[in-house]
Structures are given as C-alpha cells and as structure tokens.
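Weekly sync, protein design subgroup
Attendees: M.S., D.O., the rotation student, P.L. (late)

Item 1: inverse folding check
M.S. brought a backbone from last month's batch and wanted to see whether the design step gives back something sensible before we order anything. D.O. pointed out we never logged the input encoding, so this time it goes straight into the notes. Structure tokens as presented (381 positions):
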C-alpha cells in the first residue's frame, strides 16, 4: 500500500471554517484577499459563526473581548514563576495555557471569547515579564488589536500600524487542517475541555516545521548580517550542506502562498518606517535566488519574521505571535469538532516483522544475563 507522507492530500473530515482547495485560501467561503482589510473582530465572528456579522455584532464582540483582556492575579504570579528560568517563550506559553485551565476556569464554563481574550493577554504578559517589564492595562475604548499591541509593546500603536497588524492577525487566523489545528481537533474529538485542546495545539505549533519557522527565518537573516557573508553565498552553503531554508515552500501552495504576497507589502512598509530595510533587502535577495535556484516561493513565515522584528519583538517570541493569531481558528475548529461528536481514531499499516512467541526465556539464558550484570558491577567497583 502506497501511503502519502504526512497525510498529504488525504481528506479526513468536513469543515465549514476554511479551505485551501485549488490552492486558494478562503474563510467560510470568503477569499482571503477580500478579508485582508476586514477588522480582526469581524473575522473572529466569521470563523466562529460561518457568517458575516452586523455592525452591532462586531461592536458587541469587540466590547466583550476587550472586557476580558485581564488575567487573574494568581495566573500572573504563576507566569512569573515559570518565566524565571531561561525557557523558550513557547514552553512558557504551553504551561500558561494549562494553568489558565486551572486557575481561571474553575467551573469549566469559560466560553471562546473569554479564552481568546485571555490568550492574547497571556502572550503579551509572557513577552513583557521575560524582559522584566511592567504589565500594561487594557483601554476599554480601544479595539482588540490596538490593545493587544499596547499590551506587548508598552506603547500605543499608530492607526496605520494597527491596520497593518490587524491584517497580519487576519491572515494567520486559520488555515484549514494544519498540524496544530488538527492536533486541537484530535483532542477535541475526545470531548476534552477547551484549555486541554489549546495546550495540545500550542505544543504542535512550537515545532520549527510549523509555527517555529518564522523564528528560524530571522535567525538566518541576523546571522547573514552579523557575519557579513553575502546572502547568496550563505544560501548556497546551506543547500550544499543539505539544510532546509526556512520560510520557503508549502505543501499546498506550489505557485506561491497568497498570504505571503500580502505580508510582503506590510514587511516592506514596516521595515522602511523603522530603519530595518536591511533585513527586508536581504529577504528580497534570498527570495529571488531561491526561486531561480529551486522554484520555491516564500511562505507565510518568511515575511512575518521581519514584521515581528519591526515591532520590537525578540525572535524567540515570534511563534507566540503566531499562537495569538491562530487561537481564533483553533477555537473555531474545537467547537466544530466537539459539535460533530466523532472520536478521531485513524488506522495504521503495520510494516514490522512478524514473530512467534515460544514461551519464557530459558533459565540458562537468564543465569547468563544475571552473571554478566554481576560481573560488570564487580569490575566497576
């Protein structure tokens, strides 16, 4: 039996949330290109309800989310304890999500808007506490994206930056059955609570082949800049050594990631306004060479590396930003999977050898093994 690696192309369930059919990304039937200028709250509502909201519904959702963007004192205390040791921010987030399920969700009745709001604030808190910076408080009259940016940067962003980052969050909100989303759905299929599903999703996102790719992209750019090596020489050496160039290629988008095309413009504009054009220029040189050499296009992780750097974030926190954006989609899929009520339990094909059991190990063999252990111990002493 010829099985596709990594379930590539295998349809395992139905969904009304998003689609990548024909290499076109749509949210509940709406092309992503048409949603890039929609507000984050609009897209949250769309993914959770599979219909566009009214003005009043957007306002109500925005008010609810902002009102819940506060963490219990006990959760903050525990995050501080976890963040004391030099751990990767995604490891801290993994533990924090699990903690939220115990310190904040005592009655087990937290609903998606509350959880999304707490996730955004928790991620901002992790970023601030790691740098020994004070935690900021939300402003009730601001939007979700503006508040979130304020919480992790400590400064009120300009309307232009809020609009650009809102697009970033929208583009990352969902992406069909990617690794972390599928992981969340598997756990959700057992009817586990929301926080358990989210913890599992965070674990899957942490890997460098999934959410962690944006961190690796910036490490590559920083190394090129610090060493002074020509970017093309660097890439050629990496390819010759058999190493993967992070941020390129996609299992679904063979002719270019539609999200990357939009993010490129945002990365260029942010780089220009923050004196970081050197990083964007490096990306352009690498992207042109990679297409010429391998015919691979940049994916969603490629340009977010520069975008997050321009926002003042350390590269180790980039994947937490991905988690902040993707929580919207995770929650949508968890709800859909739990409503479906079917346990996900695939089968596998055994390819090992077959054997016949002939009974317990003979006494002679056992004695021989025991003697060797005793002799080894005596020799060591």
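Designed sequence read out in the meeting:
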């Amino acid at each position: 039996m010829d099985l596709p690696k990594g379930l590539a192309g295998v349809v395992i369930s139905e969904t009304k949330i998003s689609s990548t059919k024909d290499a076109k990304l749509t949210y509940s039937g709406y092309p992503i290109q048409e949603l890039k200028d929609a507000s984050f709250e609009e897209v949250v509502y769309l993914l959770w309800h599979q219909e566009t909201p009214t003005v009043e519904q957007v306002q109500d959702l925005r008010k609810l989310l902002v009102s819940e963007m506060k963490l219990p004192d006990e959760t903050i205390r525990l995050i501080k304890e976890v963040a004391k040791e030099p751990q990767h921010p995604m490891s801290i987030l993994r533990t924090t999500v699990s903690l939220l399920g115990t310190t904040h969700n005592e009655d087990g009745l937290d609903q998606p808007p509350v959880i999304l709001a707490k996730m955004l604030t928790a991620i901002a808190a992790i970023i601030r506490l790691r740098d020994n910076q004070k935690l900021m408080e939300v402003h009730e009259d601001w939007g979700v994206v503006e508040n979130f940016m304020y919480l992790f940067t400590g400064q009120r962003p300009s309307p232009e930056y809020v609009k650009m980052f809102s697009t970033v969050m929208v583009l990352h909100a969902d992406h069909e059955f990617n690794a972390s989303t599928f992981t969340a759905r598997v756990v959700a299929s057992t009817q586990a609570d929301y926080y358990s599903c989210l913890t599992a999703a965070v674990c899957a996102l942490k890997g460098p082949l999934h959410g962690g790719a944006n961190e690796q992209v910036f490490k590559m750019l920083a190394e090129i800049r610090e060493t002074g090596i020509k970017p093309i020489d660097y890439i050629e050496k990496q390819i010759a050594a058999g190493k993967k160039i992070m941020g390129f290629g996609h299992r679904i988008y063979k002719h270019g990631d539609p999200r990357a095309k939009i993010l490129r413009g945002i990365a260029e504009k942010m780089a220009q306004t923050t004196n970081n054009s050197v990083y964007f220029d490096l990306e352009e040189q690498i992207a042109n060479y990679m297409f010429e050499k391998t015919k691979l296009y940049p994916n969603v992780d490629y340009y977010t590396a520069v975008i997050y750097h321009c926002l003042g974030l350390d590269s180790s926190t980039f994947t937490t930003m991905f988690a902040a954006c993707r929580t919207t989609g995770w929650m949508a899929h968890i709800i859909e999977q739990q409503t479906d009520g079917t346990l996900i339990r695939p089968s596998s094909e055994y390819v090992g050898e077959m054997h016949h059991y002939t009974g317990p190990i003979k006494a002679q063999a056992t004695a021989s093994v025991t003697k060797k252990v005793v002799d080894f111990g005596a020799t060591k002493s």
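Discussion: The longest strand covers residues 18-19. Residues 376-381 have pLDDT under 50 and may be disordered.
Action: P.L. to compare against the previous round before Friday.
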